[in-house]
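Hi team,

Filling in the usual template for the complex we talked about on Friday. All components are listed, including any nucleic acid strands or ligand strings, so the model treats them as one assembly.

SUBMITTER: L.P.
PURPOSE: interface mapping
COMPONENTS: four
RESIDUES: 662
SEQUENCES:
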Amino acid sequence: MARHAGVSITTVSHSLNGKGVVAKATRQRVIEVAAELGYSADAIARGLRSNRLGLLGLVIRPLDTLGSYQPEGVDYFLRFAGAAAVEALDCGYGLVLMRDPTAGNAPGIALAADGFIISDPLAGDPVIDLLTRNAIPLVAVGRDVERPDFTAWLGGGTLRNVDSVIAHLSERGAQRIALVTGTDENSWNADSENSYREWAAENNQTPIVYNQDERLGEEGGREIAEELLASDASLPDAIYCLTGRHAAGIQAGLQAAGYRIPEDVMIVAGSDSEQTRNSAPPITSVDLAPEATAKAAVAYLVALLEADEDNQPLPPEIAYELRERASTQRG
Amino acid sequence: MARHAGVSITTVSHSLNGKGVVAKATRQRVIEVAAELGYSADAIARGLRSNRLGLLGLVIRPLDTLGSYQPEGVDYFLRFAGAAAVEALDCGYGLVLMRDPTAGNAPGIALAADGFIISDPLAGDPVIDLLTRNAIPLVAVGRDVERPDFTAWLGGGTLRNVDSVIAHLSERGAQRIALVTGTDENSWNADSENSYREWAAENNQTPIVYNQDERLGEEGGREIAEELLASDASLPDAIYCLTGRHAAGIQAGLQAAGYRIPEDVMIVAGSDSEQTRNSAPPITSVDLAPEATAKAAVAYLVALLEADEDNQPLPPEIAYELRERASTQRG
DNA sequence: CTAGCTGACCAAAACGTTTTGGGGGAGATA
DNA sequence: TATCTCCCCCAAAACGTTTTGGTCAGCTAG
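RESULT (copied from the run log):
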């Protein structure tokens, strides 16, 4: 390239990057020759020199614990990943989906990423340790419940979903509202339960909480239904279930026992999925806005990467909406 | 690292990569020290030296021409991309989704990928030119209709879908079968039309073919319905429509004009989508097996990358299935 | 005793950039 | 004429590996 343009390597670099002092005519010629030759600086060599490859990593922790990257009907994560990839492109970055990079079978490229997005980190997440140790910037969706000092996370708005769901159910006449969470140690499960217990305490309700392994899917929901039915206490008249698959299972279980949804029990899911959309009746669900969240997370990470030391960006806020469906449509 | 282990840089490299001649004890010690320090060779530096970054690129051409990377209800590509990413990980690679890398706004990392998967290349696709010029191996899903010499592609089985759909429709009593394709210049559109016309010629049928822009979605389907209704010729009694969104639009258009599906007209879509699953009636569709296709494409590309010059792998075959639904359920 | 071989290790080159620290020529000033 | 100042440009270092082509010591064989 330098030979073709009749200048030094330095001048090529300066010309194409707009740095240094180069005569206008020279810079123009270099640019023209580069275009003609289809030349552009080798990204790897540039990466070696500048320690910036233009690559972002995405780790979706719930899929790690779930064991499968394509859980039946759960489209939240795929939509999240797709939107993140597109937004990264818009920012001039590539995005690589990765599994737990502490697990050892991570691709070699893992630690070469400029920054990471961690979706739903676990308590004291080792992935955050690894990245911090390697001085790789990261942004989380959901907080690490054991790491209060780590503030570069978004999605705190999910906390308010508990309140809005309870308000919705109360408005429809619910008296005794139960909560079903997953067992992953992430803030989505933990903080939702905390919020719920706070509400119960404030309203003199006996909290009714079940924790069920996410991996069990609809079957896990059916088990909860059986536990509810076998319990000495009377059945709650509304159930807020964080995962869509558990919700669908609970609904099916209660219906099999002769209960009607929503007449006898109302059901709300904390995240929308194919199961909640297509069960009978369809289940009222919180739309966790995967596209908007992904877009915000990528933009935030890129801002973090490209910001000066002194004016760091702040985490964006995401708005969630309740999709009201027949499972809470009374009267 | 070399200092910590008390050996040269060379010996570290040799020890960790199992190359060269290193005393067993030394190699062991180096490995231990590396584990202790959490050291692993910098992927970028290694990439610079070996020209292998461990990164695959994925370009989905229909989304480029569509202009949107999240077309409403079309989950084929997202599922394809997700499955490809996971399979790449299983092979030790990262996968980056990219837009048309010839468009200029491609991320710098684009040409640093070890290899590419091109989904549904266009006729004489410039992306293939670009990659070939840069000596980057690639695998396509669907062939480039203007590049018969390029054989590293899979998905030829879609050709047979035309026959099986026609067989299915004939079995259900169809006499006059129309075809609706898209206008993208890919093999999926072109070869399907060719197959259809061959069948028509062999069976003394007057071919009825419409080509409609993919970008118009369901509205485009409705337009086709109007054209069919306005035509002098009588309405076909079955329509094979390659895209799910066109199919849903045609069905809605015909129903609005008072025709019944499937009694008056049967409809089949060449690719499954949310529209075909949830329209009324649900539309019989070909399941293009995005996960299996993606997995096969990645495995094929990786095999290509890692193969010796002399024994190149052959493209795998994919099997597709017809999902029979009410839109062809007669009698 | 010497030449040759082998096993263990290492210095240096190469990969293609970016960045640093000049170098040299032309014009201006003394 | 000598010196100073700009303005352009460039050589070389550095990034962290892998790979090539050694060196050196200790043995073995002649």
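MY TAKE: DSSP finds 13 helices and eleven strands in chain B. Chain B has three domains: 2-41, 55-156+290-316, 158-288+323-328.

Thanks, L.
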